[in-house]
Structure formats: structure tokens, C-alpha cells
Amino acid sequence: MQNPDSSTGFPAVGRSGLYFGIVLIGANLRAPITGLGPVLPAIQHDLGFNDTTAGLLNSLPLLIFALLSPVAPIVGRRHGLERILGMALLGIALGTVIRSIAMPGALWLGTIVLSSGIAFANVLLPGLVKRDFPTHAAGLVGLYAAAMAAMAGLSAGLAEPVAHMSGLGWQGAIGIWALPALVALFVWMPQFRVRQHYVSSAITGGSAFVSPWRHPVGWQVSLFFAFHSLVFYSLVDWFASYAASRGISLSSAGFMLLVFQVVAVATNLGSAPVIRRLSDQKLLGFSCGLLLLIGTGGLAFMPDLSLLWLTCAGFGAGIAMVTSLSLFGLRTRDHHQAAALSGMAQFIGYSGAATGPLLVGLLHDAIGGWIAPLWLLMGSSILAAVFATLAGRSRTIG
Predict the structure, then answer these.
(1) What's phi and psi for 325, nearest 5 deg?
(2) pTM attached to this predicted model
(3) Residue 65: closest CA among 127, 141, 126, 122
(4) Of 127, 145, 184, 352, which sits with the fewest C-beta atoms within 10 Å of its C-beta?
(5) Contact 196, 81 (CB under 8 A)
(6) What is the spatial distance between Cα 383 and Cα 66, in angstroms, rounded to a whole number?
(7) d(Cα 125, Cα 127) in Å, to the nearest integer?
(8) Helices and strands (H and E) in the chain: how many
(9) Which is nearest to 275 in space by CA: 337, 221, 329, 231?
């Protein structure tokens, strides 16, 4: 369906408002998750979780992302992207509040609700950007990825200080992130009143449509997404516990995670214009995997320089995120195919990423140290470099 304002390529209702709303949605797609890691030791102490249970809690959002990613394009097609994105923001806010309530099961229920909202927004947002901002897609992807990383960094960096405020505890530290979701929902409200745009079924693409599930590029993009996400979420979820084992205070660990995210933000913003100018993304893909390998390898063998290694990993994570999101559009012919690739990549990607925090917890419980988990992350970094280089070649599906 064409936009009402075909002369500009922007929707008729509030082009700047829609642009700003997309950035605000992006800002809410990681903060409720990354704020959990720094207060995880307190949660384990209060609720009696062992490392395996804590790993399952860390992995639950990623499992939900994987399960709902194939469903999101269908729901968006049936009910409209704008409406479902608004409902996703409501789910994020509601789930974040529920998760912070001191009652049995609330932590798990709230995590399920907020993760469901994030899952729908994860999949539908790239398709909305490709459809409504085709000539500005790379810049907007970089901007909302930067907002996502910035808020994720603030969430990680502020979690432990907020938890120590009088009467708040870890519940307040993770509950406070309902506020940005409510702000984004308020800004997004006008989109409920516009004519809804729908992601057409793949069949409307006619005989030219090729499913990413049946094309090597679809698998290369998806596996790149899986391995860099596995490293990212494992670091965010477990670095505080790793740091504590090395005698690093929780406040220092939170600061290091903040630096990790700030570097990722700067890299998000810097990568977007580079992507637009390059004929392919092979070098970017290889670089992000190499930087992740340097970061995880450094943590394993020279832990006293943890801040340096997290900085390297932050560069790698920033390049990886904006590149993988951009590939959803760059490797497809239209927004129908982009939606299909987004759903596939995030299903496979988050299925793989969900195993990361869980395997880290299992390996740490079984072996009692951090070398085996860090070898897992180093191997994943190498595979991220391989698949990113393959996906970075200038080709499209079909």
C-alpha cells in the first residue's frame, strides 16, 4: 500500500513525529533487559536463584523473541504496523511494572509480557523503516540503533546506583524503565489515528518473491545475527558476576557496562553513513567479529584490563547491530521480503542468542570458573565474523 504523501516518500501524518516515534521505540528495545544484569546478584540472593536459574531468566526474553518473530509479520499484516507497534509499547510498559512487583511469579510473568512487546517491535520496525523511509533507511536504522544502545547503556549503568536508593532495591532499578516506554507510547498515539498500513502477504510479491528461508543469503544474515547477539547478551547478563569473581565492585562493573554501551552508541551512529557509502559490507562484517574476539579473548586472558576489552567489544557490538539491521533492507528487493527476512533472522538469531546466557550459567555451574564460558564467546565471535563476511557480499535474495 502506498503512502498518502507519495511526493516525499513520508507518511502524510507527521513525518517528523513518525521519525521521532521510531527512534523512541528503538530506545525501549533493550533497556528493560540490560538493566537486569547488574542487579542479578541481588536477585539471586533475595530469591535463592542458582546460576542455572539466573541464566534461564536472562535467556527468557531471547527465547520469546525467537518464538514470536515468525508471528509478528502475520499480526502486523492483519492489524497494521502502527497499531501493533503501539500495542508493543504498552506491553513493554505493563510488563516492566509487573516484573518489579514483590509477589511470587511476578518477575517471570512481567519478563514474558515485556519481552513479547519487544519481540513484535524488533521485527516490525525494520519493515516500517524500509517502507516509509526508503531513501533515509540506513540513517534512521543507525539512529534508532544508537538510541537502543544508549538507553541500554544507561539502564546497565544506573541499575546498581538506583537499587541502592532508599526503599527502591532491585525492584525499583528494573521497574523505572516503564517510564520511557510510556513516553514513547504517548508520542506514538497519533499513529493510531492514521490510516493503517499493512505488510502484504509474501504471495503479493508474485513469482518474483523468494523466501529467505530458501536462500543462502537469508541463512548468512540470520547466523550472523545469532552469533553476535549471543556474545552481546552474554556479556550484558554475566559481566557483573564475572567482574565480582575478579574482585571488581558492582558499581565499577556497572560503569564498565555503561562504557561498553556508550561505545556501541557512537559506533552505531558512525557506521550508518559508512554503510551507505560502501559497495558491500564484507569489511564491516569481518571487523565486528574481530573486535568481539579481541574483547572476549582479552577478558579470558588479561582480566585486569577489563575496561579495555569491553571497549573493544563495544565497537564490535555497535558495528554488528547496525550492520545486521541494515542487511534486512540491503539484501532484499522490497519491504515484503524485508519483513520475511527480519522475521527469519530474528527467529534464528534469538534462538541462538538465547542459548548464550543459559550456556554461560550451565558451564559456570558445571566447571566453576569463567574460562569455559569465555571460550564459548570467543568461538561465537569467530563464527560471527565468518557469517558477517559472507552476508556482507553485495547480493540480494532472489
Answers:
(1) -65, -40
(2) 0.78
(3) 122
(4) 352
(5) yes
(6) 20
(7) 5
(8) 16, 0
(9) 329
Residue 41's alpha-carbon distances to 112, 168, 169, 355, in angstroms, are 21, 16, 12, 20
Quote the CA–CA distance of 95 and 91 in Å, as a whole number.
6
CB within 8 Å of 314: residues ≥ 6 apart: 259, 260, 261, 262, 263, 264, 267, 295
Beta strands (DSSP E) in 85-175 are none
- Give tens-digit pLDDT for 161-212: 888 875 678 888 889 999 999 999 999 998 877 655 554 444 444 446 788 8
Q: Around Cβ 298, how many Cβ atoms within 10 Å?
A: 21
| Rg of the chain over all Cα atoms, to the nearest angstrom | 20
- What pLDDT digit, counting tens, does each position of 308-349 carry? 999 999 999 989 988 998 898 888 887 778 878 988 998 998
Say what percent of the chain tops pLDDT 90: 36
Average pLDDT, the chain: 85
User: Once rounded to an integer, what is the mean pLDDT over residues 99-104?
Assistant: 84
Q: What angle do CA 97, 147, 350 make, to 5 degrees?
A: 70
Q: Where are any strands of DSSP class E within the chain?
A: none
369 by DSSP, 3-state: which?
coil
Nearest of 315, 322, 328, 321 to residue 272 by alpha carbon: 322
Q: Which of 198, 53, 70 is nearest to 111 (CA)?
A: 53
Element (H, E) at 86: helix 81-99
Give the span between the Cα atoms of 56 and 51, in whole angstroms.
Answer: 9
Q: Which residue has the higher pLDDT, 89 or 246?
A: 89
